[in-house]
Amino acid sequence: MSGARIRPIAAALAAAAILCAPSRGSVQSRTGRPVSPLLRVGIYADRGVGDSPKDARDYAGELLATLRSIDPQCRARLVRSRDIRRGALRSLEVLVFPGGSGEGQLRSLGMRGAKMVRAFVRRGGGYVGICAGAYLARSSWPGRKERVLGLVPLVLADGGLGWDRGAGIVAVSVSPAGGELLPELDGIGTVFSHYHNGPVLVPPAANHTGGIDELMTFITDIARPGSAGTGTRGRPFLLRSRFGKGTVILASGHPEATPGLRWLLPRMVTLAAGKVNRRYPASLMETSKIRGEIIMTPERLEEEGILLDICAKHRDYDGETVCGAIAGLMEVHSRRVCRLLPPLLIHESAAVRKSAAAALGFSEYFPGLSAVRRALGHEVSPDVAAELEKALNILASGESR
């Protein structure tokens, strides 16, 4: 962010060395528990997560499948507000708050749950906030009484008036600090990620800039016409901060839903836990899968809705129309099409089955792994079977590690 101080890399590395240094007897983590190669992660799955109250478990479940598939050492599970109030945080090292509505998530947490999350991070737990989860972690503007967790010394630009900036694929740059903590991106410069109305976070005052490591910043200046907010260029897209003894990782966009960047979900989790980076399969590290910006204009959103409807009601259309819909949705890297692809693997048209398999593999949609396996066991077309094998090799690449 403009004027924000990035901590010296040497200091960050020294801190990491302290966290990872062995001690006499059993090795202890920041929370005082023995260090294990396994990482216990909770993904919030209550109201405010996803696009609707009924969507919470499915939406959080997609993150669960992604985390487990890429890094099997992440022993992740879904947690609800009642689980938190009943003491679930005692058995976790990192808590992930996904996209949806930050205000809705705070309402479902309740005051008691919010206090427990703050205490968890303050004592040394890790917090990963994605889009709505980043909204949730921010601080209030001075003089306001906003219901937030206050885990980072940052507030919403323009007082949050311009939250409806838009959606699409945005360009982001990797900072020197980001290159150190995300060595796979060191020297790459620019990557492209999904974004959907995520927060633009800034210091509340020019003299309040410390304690934030910007790992990625926006290049794309996304601001919906007529929006009250300013654009995003130069603002943080991915950042790290501290709260008490804990580490907070916030993403304004959705790298976890972006082909070629989904591995950033387990990496954000390990950074929040203060653990050493793990290596991920090369097939998941193709950061150049998406090569340019795509802003979802009203016209594009309308067309996306039509094409999604065709995929959802595929039995009402011929194979050529369904294949065209899949191709159109993949052209704009639609996130919403992924859930509609697994049923298409058993479509009567071999062309549709092949298109769906290719789209699942390219999108790295890990919840579709079991459907790919089932389809492969019954597929009679060699061409479709070959595409299913490609998808399987990608989606199951983490299992052999």
Observed structural traits:
401 residues, alpha/beta, Rossmann fold, 2 domains, 10-stranded mixed sheet, two-stranded antiparallel sheet, 12 helices, 12 strands, globular, disordered N terminus
Please characterize this protein's 3D structure.
Helix 2 links the parallel strand 1 (39-44) and strand 2. The strands form two sheets. Strands 1, 2, 3, 4, 6, 7, 9, 10, 11 and 12 form a ten-stranded mixed beta sheet that branches. It is built from twelve helices and twelve strands. By secondary structure, it is of the alpha/beta class. The chain is globular, with a radius of gyration of 21 Å. The protein has helices spanning 9-20, 56-70, 81-85, 102-122, 132-137, 176-181, 264-273, 298-312, 319-331, 350-363, 369-378, 382-395, and strands at 39-44, 74-79, 94-97, 126-130, 155-156, 167-174, 190-196, 201-202, 212-218, 236-243, 246-251, 294-295. The chain has two domains: 9-284, Class I glutamine amidotransferase (GATase) domain (Rossmann fold, 3-Layer(aba) Sandwich); 296-395.
